[in-house]
Amino acid sequence: MCRSIKTLRPPALPEEATEEEIRAAALQYVRKVSGFRAPAVHNREVFERAVDVIAEATAELLDGLEIRGAGIRR
Q1: Segment 20-48, tens digit of pLDDT
Q2: Which of 36, 37, 25 is nearest to 61 (CA)?
Q3: pTM of the prediction?
Q4: What span, in angstroms and rounded, lies between the C-alpha atoms of 48 and 15?
Q5: CB count, 10 Å around CB of 58?
């Protein structure tokens, strides 16, 4: 687990995660998995596409989660 990726669902966050927080988590994930902090020019497109796809999947996950006992559904 990448230690710099934080939990983005309540109650870990007092409010819903922002698009910026979701994208930052996706970027950290792609950096960890790829082993690159910043991709070379020839890898930039696939790197950015992976960040976009993971951010979208993360937003979908958070939108679908039901937090029991909190009466919160994102």
Answers
A1: 999 999 999 999 999 999 999 999 999 99
A2: 25
A3: 0.82
A4: 27
A5: 19
